[in-house]
Design a protein that fits this description.
Chain A: It comes from Tuber aestivum. The structure holds 2 protein chains of 2 kinds. Chain A is mostly helical. Chain A is 46% helix and 10% strand. In chain A, strands 2-1-3 form a 3-stranded antiparallel beta sheet. In chain A, strands 4-5 form a two-stranded antiparallel sheet. In chain A, strands 6-7 form a two-stranded antiparallel ribbon. In chain B, α3 packs across α4. The interface between A and B is medium-sized, with 17 and 14 residues.
């Protein structure tokens, strides 16, 4: 694995993963990757220098516009373009081995040379290579003996070996004994401390305990005592269930399917049905009555309104008549006052009209026309006051 | 070679991320130099309802040499040879017209465009091209019959 990782010498700038999507304008039209070592042609197209060199070996034309092109027509692109692509942030090519580094592309060489923990470097103790993170003062390539299985392996592989060594000591999960990994399975099958269910757990015994207590439990276990009986019952139950199922199938075949409405009918006896019918009757009656009642209410309201309208009109008519009459009285009174004023005798009582009129009302023979009007005016006056 | 594989992989992921209408792609081998293509006949064309299998072969020095596109399904078309190869005559695929900057997606879309509108002036099957120009009804009839027979 250490040999597959990328070092500064094997770094291929054209095969990097970029942190963000790169603008198409910064990509080479040939490899479709961000430009590496950008060059441009006399027809003003930009390519990676390696891409255009290879393209010109195949065809002496520009890969974009097919104009004739020679290697001499290609020159380094403006430094700004190179800076733009060199500043793009890339992932370390060893990220698949676990390197978390991201940096500008031009810094990647330095990272691989100096820092990256996943670059293969020369082992200090021998001629081999080793990942930088594992490199130390001692050589990890020398063979060491496994203390358990006495096979030898390289020190660097020891960690992997420990995981799979068959002779390594492992503790039993139940007792405190130590066993080699190859024996532990056999031991667990007989370990006295291993937790076991009761042998009658299939008929419902909830007991669980260490294997050494199992015999004692079995002797006292009520489930074990009843086991033969329970088994016999279970067997019978099963046969009966089977028989039942077969019989049900037969019934289904023999009987025609029942109409679903029949099932509900027997719940009500005759009396209840009668009562229900009666209730239904009453309810419809009630509805009918409510409807006619509301109709009558509306009619009543209409009648009342008509009546009051008529009355209002009459009152208005009467009021107009009263107004007319009052005008007449005024006129008459005025003429009478004038007549009294011309008469020398009644001149003193001209200011008190009502007294005067009552006095004259008592004396019917004395005035011909006036008392008559007065009499008509009196009840009218009363009504106006009302 | 490595560069070709890299660019092909890049183009494949691009097409997968944004698949074109009516075209499916499926690389045959792991090295991605041969692709199975399926193009459905464009709805408004006479090839509607048909599904055409094509084989795209990319040269080892792609993109400096053009890819080769051939019909596996028989098709009655002036620009496709009427033989076992089913080679498609696509202008941009000729070596003298190919540009390394051209993408596979553009090639496939152009192939589908040729189903929509055949180009009788650049034909490989001259008799079909003649018929297409002089008796379009007969051409369409045969083309539709072939779709029914081979491309269903």
């Amino acid at each position: 694995m250490s040999l597959n990782s990328v070092s500064e010498n094997t770094l291929d700038l054209g095969n990097l993963s970029y942190l963000t999507e790169v603008d198409d304008n910064l990509c080479c039209p040939i490899c479709h990757s961000p430009l590496v070592d950008p060059v441009h042609t006399k027809c003003r197209h930009t390519f990676c220098s390696s891409c255009i060199t290879e393209a010109l070996e195949t065809s002496k034309t520009c890969p974009v516009d097919r104009k004739p092109l020679k290697l001499e027509d290609v020159s380094a692109a403006p430094i700004m373009i190179a800076n733009l692509v060199n500043d793009l942030v890339v992932l370390c090519p060893n990220s698949e081995f676990g390197c978390p580094m991201t940096c500008a592309r031009y810094l990647l060489g330095g990272h691989l040379r100096e820092d990256c923990a996943f670059v293969a470097v020369k082992c200090l103790g021998c001629d081999g290579t080793i990942m930088r993170r594992d490199a130390g003062s001692e050589c990890l390539h020398q063979l060491v003996e496994c203390p358990f299985c006495s096979s030898s392996c390289r020190k660097i592989d020891m960690e992997n070996h420990r995981v799979e060594c068959p002779r390594i000591i492992a503790a039993c999960n139940h007792c405190s004994g130590d066993f080699t990994r190859s024996n532990i399975k056999a031991h667990e099958a007989t370990c006295d401390e291993a937790i076991m269910p009761c042998e009658s757990s299939d008929v419902g015994c909830p007991w669980k305990g260490a294997r050494r207590e199992l015999t004692e439990h079995t002797r006292a276990c009520p489930f074990t005592l009843l086991r033969p009986v329970l088994h016999a019952h279970a067997g019978r139950l099963e046969t009966l269930e089977l028989e039942n199922r077969a019989l049900r199938r037969k019934i289904d075949i023999l009987l025609p399917p029942r109409p679903p409405t029949e099932a509900a009918a027997p719940f009500f006896d005759e009396h209840t049905i009668q009562l229900l019918a009666e209730q239904e009757h009453l309810r419809s009656d009630l509805e009918r009555l409510t409807a006619s009642l509301s109709e009558m209410e509306i009619q009543q309201g209409m009648l009342l309104m008509n009546e009051s309208l008529r009355l209002k009109e009459e009152v208005a008519g009467l009021r107009a008549a009263i107004g007319g009459i009052r005008m007449q009285i005024h006129w008459l009174m005025n003429t009478r006052h004038q007549a009294v004023d011309q008469r020398p005798v009644g001149g003193t009582s001209s200011s008190s009209g009502p007294q005067n009129s009552s006095a004259q009302g008592g004396n019917l023979s004395s005035g011909g026309v006036l008392p008559n009007i007065r009499r008509m005016a009196d009840p009218l006056n009363d009504r106006v006051k009302l | 070679m490595a560069q070709a594989a890299k660019r092909i992989t890049r183009e494949y992921t691009e097409i997968e991320a944004n698949p074109p209408q009516g075209i499916t792609i499926q690389p045959i081998d792991e090295d991605m130099f041969k692709w199975n293509i399926e193009i459905t006949g464009p709805k408004e064309s006479i090839y509607a309802g048909g599904t055409f299998k094509l084989l795209l072969t990319l040269p080892t020095n792609y993109p400096f040499k053009p890819p080769v596109l051939s019909f596996q399904t028989k098709i009655y078309h002036p620009n496709v040879t009427n033989d076992d190869k089913g080679s498609m005559c696509l202008g941009i695929l000729r070596s003298d017209q190919w540009k390394p900057s051209c993408k596979i997606l553009a090639v496939l879309e152009m192939a589908r465009g040729l189903l929509m509108e055949p180009n009788p002036d650049d034909a490989v099957e001259t008799s079909i091209a003649e018929q297409y120009k002089s008796d379009k009804a007969a051409f369409e009839k045969t083309a539709k019959a072939w779709v029914k027979q081979y491309a269903k």
